[in-house]
Each structure stands twice: as structure tokens, then as C-alpha cells.
Amino acid sequence: MKCYYHPDRDAVGQCVDCGKFLCVECTGKYKPVLCDDCYNDRVNNYRIQQEQQIANTKAQEAAYVNEFTKHRNASFIIAAIVAIAITLETCIGYIVEGEYAFVFIFPLVVGLPIFALLFGIIFYLRTRDNWDALYDVISSGGIHPFKGISRYFKYKKIYDEYRSRL
After folding, report:
1. How far is the first Cα of the chain from the last one, in angstroms, to the nearest whole number?
2. At a CB cut-off of 8 Å and minimum separation 6, what does 132 contact?
């Protein structure tokens, strides 16, 4: 048997992909033993796979950023409405009772923490991988607002990195 590429040389091996017979020089070119055609096919297939993987990653990042923005905005609006409602209701009570000093203190001391906790809770529940949030809350013994707030900042970092590359 002779080498596929060098008909004047004896074959000492075969291409692992197509089975072409190869001489000593040809078998030493690539590991594993491949003919030039199969090597080029593998390189081209690898490039195509890498390009597809990069395109998929970019598409996933864009979808992730859109999802993050949607959850962030909804969480912010819901938490703001509830915190404002609680704060206004209490402040109106202080105005009716004539305790005007509390009208200015209450929103800062109580309203902002209420907003932060509500935002953390809502963001946590909206960004759960599985949407069995109610079961999660009941089985774990409580809601995790601080996990929601930390998750927000983790996702925001990814969001900011993605936006900076655009």
C-alpha cells in the first residue's frame, strides 16, 4: 500500500477519519493521525462551532439584559407604590393629629427602608429560576429581601458590563 499524497512512498498509517493510507511524513503532521483534507474539515467545523457559540452567547446576553431590565423596572414601580402608600397613609395620620415633625422624619426613617426591603423581596421573587416562589417562601420560613438586593447588584454588574461593550 502506498501513501495517498506520496504515491512513491509506502504507507505506515491511516487517517482516523476517512481511512486514507499515509506515509511516515504524513502521519507525523497532526495528532491524531489525519490526512490534510480531514484536518482542514475539522478546523473549519471548529471555527463554525466557535462562531455559533459566540452568536448564541451574545443572543443570551441580550435576552438576559432585557429580562433584567423588565424585572428591575417592575420591582421598582411596585415597591415605590407600596412604600409611598404606606408612608402617605401614616404621614396623613400625623398631620391630622398635629404632629408635623414626624411628617418629615417618617419617610426617611421608615419609608426608605420599607422601599428597599420591598424592592429586594419583589426582585427576588421575580427573578427566581423556578416560579414556585410562594412554595419557596412557605417552605423556607420567610422571604429573602437581602438575597433579592444582592441578586440585583450582581445582575446589575453583568448588565453594566454588557452595556459597556455595546
Report:
1. 58
2. none
Cβ atoms within 10 Å of 142's Cβ, excluding its own: 9
The H-or-E segment that residue 21 falls in is: strand 21-22
Count of CA atoms in the C-beta half-sphere (13 A) of 122: 21
User: How is the chain split into domains, by residue range?
Assistant: 56-165
Q: Who contacts 27 (Cβ-Cβ below 8 Å, separation ≥6)?
A: 12, 13, 33
Neighbours of 102 (CB within 10 A): 16
Confirm whether pTM is higher than 0.70. Answer: no
Residue 74 grid coordinates = 417592575
| DSSP code, position 13 | E
Q: Which three cell numbers stand for residue 38?
A: 480531514
- Tens-place pLDDT, residues 57-72: 888 877 777 777 787 7
Whole-angstrom distance, CA of residue 77 vs CA of residue 89: 18
Q: Tell me the backbone φ, ψ of residue 30, rounded to 5 degrees.
A: -130, 150
User: How far is Cα 105 from Cα 114, in angstroms, rounded to an integer?
Assistant: 14
Residue type, 149: I
Q: How many CB atoms lie within 10 A of CB 83?
A: 21
Residue with the three cell numbers 420599607: 114
